[in-house]
Design a protein that fits this description.
Elements lengths: L2 H34 L1 H11 E7 L6 E2 L5 E13 L1 H7 L2 H18 L7 H16 L6 E2 L5 E2 H7 L9 H4 L1 E10 L7 H4 L12 H5 L1 H4 L4 E8 L2 E8 L6 E4 L3 H15 L8 E8 L5 E9 L5 E2 L4 H4 L9 H10 L8 E3 L4 E4 L2 E4 L10 E3 H6 L3 H12 L3 H10 L32 H6 L8 H12 L4 E2 L4 E6 L2 E5 L4 E3 L5 H16 L16 E9 L12 E10 L6 E10 L5 H19 L19 H8 L15 H9 L4 E5 L4 E4 L12 E6 L1
Parallel strand pairs: 2-9, 24-26
Antiparallel strand pairs: 1-7, 2-3, 3-4, 3-5, 3-6, 7-8, 9-18, 10-11, 10-23, 11-12, 13-16, 14-15, 17-20, 18-19, 21-22, 22-23, 25-26
């Protein structure tokens, strides 16, 4: 090998060693940085930026059928100080120099926190001093949530006006769900969990995918000694729901029912009422009032759709209809109800007037008019005892027992016992007692659905609670009426049953559900059922009853159906006498209104509805922000938004839309100004 080749080889070898040394240095430095100095560089990273910051969205609103806000989201703030940030960036001298100003400012912003202004200021002064001695990163400044206006006032105070990464003060935004109409239809509309804002029940839970929207994402970075938040994905607000509920009918139905529940001879444990539009199945009111320990009534559970109960005498209509549809009976059929007592497979069937000698011979219509247990059970037992499965199958054919699949968690579905079931023993006495509303269990809403079908020319429709999905006040999707059965029975059977149900109110036990025929005709059926009380059953201890009336109006061209139920202890217990008057009040109120609106009218600019957020902003965006706007006719949520945007404090009185405001529109806005809004 020549000397030149030796020198070349040596140079390449030396270069190789140098490259290996440099590579080893880089790898060792990377390992050292990654492993040994990881915590240090992570801290540095946090100082200069933050990734994947969630941006909250706005949950959609829930409106009644006329566009009145029943549930809406309003921002509130939890106020904190990050004392680690404050202690690092703010000197003690600067902090204590501004302490009195901050304490006095907080006392002005939250004047009702302590009895006097001085006590409030002293409290905040002491609280801020105490926090200064800690390195707590989430020291609560105020124990309650602050409004948007209060939060904006806080960030105008010394030190608090600095960025959260400089002064340490920050507000955690929480969307508070407001219900302008209080507890009306509370369990149907639903609520959110206080802990995390997740839907808990009702329509809030069932339609969460529509209402929730989608949160956005951002990241923060430090630029020129300032932290800047960069939005990577804009949040998408949730869409709104237009429900079928009518606030006016809901309010009236609740008041009428609670008034009856409070009567001394009633003292009801539970009251339920539902009003439904016949042709569409739209539920206009749904009331669930449970008696609390204090004697007052509250919406504690959606019993109308969840509780399985033996329907009692309202079920007799289905039994008699089936017998007629199967050709087993007709309007000319008569039954000897004897002296009000009749032996039935080892048990005695009684009519309610057995102690007065009973009814004797009754016609088909009179059996329903007087709600005779013996009349119904004899017709069913004598015609189906050899084939009880035919009776049960016939009920199914008419829509009894069909699952409604309503949009509520915990909904109940009817339980119709089967004679051929391998899991339940079928006794001979089951058939006659089932025919008068025992043995079978179903929710109250199922009973109403059946009667609504009778009113609707035999077409059974599913109860509907939501009319449409809205975005920025415009309909993006309508929810059509769902037909469960096109025809529940023969037209001739339907006509005869409608005749009988009209007689129940005009000349039978349901008179008090009508209005004496002076205003319009009412049809329906009374119901009284003894309710089993746990291990005590039906016959031990205090006897509990469910009384009811279910029907429709006006009889000649049915537009609405309605059911009223009361669960109570002891006698007297009368569906006609106790639920009938409530039904009468509701029906007269509904007919007096005489106006219904379709979902399409929600998008009609000439219709008077509560404007959406977007529409409100469009309406006021060209107005001067230094004068008081005119908010007459707006919903509570939108009026508050418009006024608070101008730095005006708002107090609300009443419910509904804005009827009046105590400050004249056009008045110049001054600092600390407040406006009182009266709603109706």
């Amino acid at each position: 090998m020549t000397p030149d080749k030796n020198n070349s080889t040596n140079r390449f070898f030396i270069l190789f060693l140098l490259l290996c040394a440099v590579g080893g240095y880089i790898l060792s430095t990377a390992a050292y940085t990654t492993l040994t100095k990881r915590d240090y560089w992570m801290a540095v990273s946090k100082r200069f930026g933050k990734e994947n910051i969630p941006l909250p969205t706005t949950r959609g609103n829930i409106y009644d059928c006329k566009g009145r806000l029943m549930a809406g989201s309003v921002p509130e703030y939890r106020l904190y100080i990050d004392y680690e940030v404050l202690n690092r960036n703010i000197s003690d001298s600067m902090f204590y120099a501004n302490l009195d100003t901050i304490a006095e400012g907080l006392a002005n912003i939250f004047p009702d926190y302590r009895p006097t202004h001085k006590e409030t200021a002293d409290h905040f002064r002491k609280l801020l001093k105490q926090g200064k001695k800690t390195r707590n990163r989430s020291w609560r400044v105020y124990p309650h949530n602050a409004s948007y206006i209060q939060y904006k006032q806080c960030i105008e105070l010394p030190i608090f006006d600095l960025h959260k990464y400089k002064g340490g003060f920050y507000g955690e935004r929480i969307m508070y769900r407001k219900h302008p109409y209080g507890s009306l239809a509370e369990r149907t509309i639903g609520s959110l969990r206080a802990s995390n804002g997740d839907p808990k029940n009702g329509l809030e839970l069932s339609f969460d995918s529509i209402l929730a929207g989608k949160p956005g994402v951002a990241h923060s970075t430090k630029m020129r000694n300032k932290y800047v938040q960069v939005v990577d994905l804009e949040p998408v607000p949730g869409n709104d729901l237009l429900t079928t509920i009518d606030v006016d009918i809901q309010d009236m139905a609740e008041k009428a029912l609670v008034s009856k529940l409070k009567e001394e001879l009633v003292h009801g444990i539970l009251g339920m009422a539902v009003v439904m539009e016949v042709a569409t199945g739209e539920v206009k009111a749904i009331v669930n009032m449970h008696r609390g320990q204090d004697g007052n009534y509250y919406e504690l559970k959606n019993s109308v759709v969840s509780d399985l109960m033996e329907p009692g005498s309202t079920f007799k209509t289905a039994s008699m209809m089936l017998a007629m549809d199967d050709g087993k009976a007709s309007l000319n059929t008569t039954v000897d109800c004897a002296g009000g007592m009749y032996p039935m497979h080892g048990r005695v069937m009684k009519d309610h007037n057995w102690h007065r000698g009973g009814y004797g011979v009754l016609t088909f219509s009179q059996i329903l008019e007087n709600s005779s247990n013996i009349g119904v059970s004899r017709i069913i037992d004598e015609n189906y005892r050899d084939n009880p499965q035919a009776y049960v199958d016939g009920l199914r054919r008419m829509g009894i027992g069909l699952p409604l699949n309503l949009p509520f968690a915990g909904k109940g579905e009817p339980l119709i016992p089967q004679p051929n079931s391998k899991t339940r023993y079928w006794s001979k006495s089951d058939l006659p007692w089932m025919s008068i509303g025992y043995v079978t269990q179903q929710p109250v809403i199922s009973t109403l659905t059946f009667y609504n079908a009778i009113a609707n020319g035999g077409k059974m429709v599913k109860p509907k609670f939501v009319k449409a999905e809205l975005k920025d006040g415009k309909i993006v999707r309508e929810f059509p009426t769902e037909v469960l059965k096109e025809q529940i029975c023969k037209p001739s059977t339907l006509k005869d049953i409608q005749f009988c149900l009209n007689n129940v109110v005009s000349i039978g036990l349901g008179k008090r559900a009508g209005n004496g025929g002076k205003l319009f005709q009412v049809s329906g059926k009374t119901g009284t059922a003894q309710v089993a009380c746990g291990k005590d059953g039906y016959h031990n201890g205090t006897r509990r009853y469910m009384v009811s009336f279910c029907g429709f109006f006006p009889s000649e061209a049915p537009k609405y159906s309605c059911i009223v139920c009361i669960v109570k202890d002891g006698l007297p217990a009368s569906g006609g006498g106790q639920c009938g008057p409530v039904f009468s009040q509701i029906s007269q109120y509904v007919m007096a209104q005489g106006v219904t609106r379709g979902a399409s009218e929600m998008a009609d600019s000439t219709s008077v509805f509560t404007p959406s957020y977007k529409n409100t902003r469009d309406k006021v965006q060209d107005c001067s922000l230094d004068v008081v706007p005119d908010v007459h006719g707006m919903g509570a949520k939108d009026a508050v938004f418009v006024l608070e945007r101008r730095g005006i404090k708002v107090s609300l009185h009443g419910t509904g839309s804005v009827r009046s405001q105590n400050v004249t529109p056009g008045t110049k806005v001054t600092k600390g100004m407040s406006v009182r809004l009266s709603l109706e």
